[in-house]
Specification:
- This protein has 395 residues and is α+β, with helices and mostly antiparallel strands.
- The protein is built from 16 helices and 15 strands.
- Strands 11-12-13-14-15 form a 5-stranded mixed β-sheet. A 4-stranded mixed β-sheet has the order 1-9-10-8. It has a 3-stranded antiparallel β-sheet with strand order 2-4-3.
- Helix 2 crosses helix 3 (57-63) and helix 15 (353-370) packs across helix 16.
- The termini are far apart.
């Protein structure tokens, strides 16, 4: 069995995630964004807007500044992506919709509250209303505000819309102030895709695991299962099938206690010269045990941690330099003052603060420009803050 060093595993993973692809020359366009999607396979959606909504950031990390509207255009106008429960709420290639039909069937099994709404006729009424009136916000369905429950205080109309979305009968036609606009799936998704046969459940999950393996490069079974949220006991025999088919090669990775699998198409670059700030939900780091195994980087999103108990900050982005995660920064876009606020900056052990601060300051300046902000302000908190503040002044 082949044995890989940890450095080799990192370089393989970064290449498969698109961090060694050549930088675009000139204006970034939809072709470059398609390349990113082909690499990462799906993008997690998140509503937190303290900096920028997280689903716009993976393309920025891999392409540099790009027109943010490209992602919305690819999703809601061109229809090449659609919203569904992939890795949490995600933007998923529309061509993969048949692979999620088994999940849609499972999610059509109603909860107690959904059963009550089905039995009362509300779900059918909401579906009929959207069919008649066209795309609607949940707040526009009638009656919009009857009944409340534990799902983020959702009213019954919203629960009905989300149930119809999860079960595949609705799709998201647009976003309005980030709220979902629901329509019948057959009016949003291409007829050609909807007409494709539904794969057998195991075949669909095996394809999702193969896609995860291609995006990750080298991965453990938990890594593979997490990518598209496949249960590990279900994934285990399907990964064995991929090994038998030659899609995956069992390998060992230095320092990893679990067996690993290398995708047949993965390549090992000699070096990686990446420089990128990563969203908290970037596919490179969204599975925290993998981020720690691969980079020695312990990462926790502290949005829901009381302020006094936060270690690094509210909205912290890891900083990738070369093939290592070398720092992290708590960022906020102060749009009123047109400033990118660095509320804290922290160096990872073993790295030189000056060598990290200079490229990080350049990346922060680029991010500020992409956000339409004119300044970067670095606060005093964090062991990297002094060097970063000096580098930001020079930048």
């Amino acid at each position: 069995m082949r044995c890989m060093s940890l450095a080799q595993a990192r370089r393989v993973a970064l290449a498969c995630q698109g961090f060694t692809d050549p930088a675009p020359r000139g204006r970034v366009d939809v072709r470059h964004l398609r390349r990113v999607i082909a690499r990462v396979d799906l993008i997690q959606i998140d509503s937190v807007n303290v900096l920028e909504r997280a689903h716009y950031l993976p393309a920025l990390s891999r392409l540099g500044p790009y027109p943010r509207g490209l992602l919305d255009d690819l999703t809601y106008r061109r229809g090449e992506l659609f919203e569904y429960w992939g890795h949490e709420a995600s933007l998923v290639p529309v061509a993969d919709q048949p692979l999620y039909r088994g999940r849609m069937a499972r999610m059509a099994q109603p909860s107690n509250r959904e059963r009550r709404l089905i039995d009362s006729g509300l779900v059918a009424a909401v579906e009929a209303e959207v069919a008649e009136r066209g795309p609607l916000l949940a707040s526009e369905v009638h009656p919009p505000r009857n009944g409340r429950g534990p799902w983020w205080d959702w009213h019954d109309g919203k629960v009905a819309c989300e149930y119809l979305l999860a079960s595949g009968r609705f799709a998201v036609a647009a976003r309005r102030n980030f709220a979902r606009v629901y329509d019948l799936a057959e009016r949003v998704l291409p007829a050609e895709v909807l007409a494709r046969p539904t794969p057998a459940p195991d075949a669909a999950l095996r394809m999702l695991l193969a896609k995860a393996a291609r995006a990750l490069g080298v991965a453990t079974l938990p890594d593979l299962a997490d990518y598209h949220r496949v249960r590990r006991p279900v994934a285990r025999p399907l990964v064995a099938d991929l090994v038998a088919d030659g899609v995956l090669e069992p390998v060992t990775v230095e320092g990893w206690s679990e067996p690993a699998y290398l995708h047949a198409e993965a390549r090992l670059p000699r070096r990686v010269d990446a420089r990128a700030l990563l969203a908290p939900f970037d596919p490179l780091v969204w599975f925290r045990p993998r981020a720690e195994r691969l980079f020695g980087f312990r990462y926790r999103v502290e949005i829901y941690v009381p302020a006094a108990q936060r270690v690094h900050g509210y909205y912290v982005l890891p900083f990738l330099l070369g093939d290592r995660l070398v720092a992290r920064a708590d960022l906020k876009a102060d749009r009123q003052a047109s400033r990118l606020l660095v509320r804290s900056a922290w160096l990872e052990p073993g790295h030189d603060p000056v060598a990290v601060a200079t490229p990080l300051a350049a990346e922060l300046a680029s991010l500020a420009g992409w956000l339409g902000l004119v300044d970067v302000a670095v606060a005093e908190r964090g062991d990297l803050a002094p060097a970063l503040r000096a580098a930001a002044r020079r930048a």
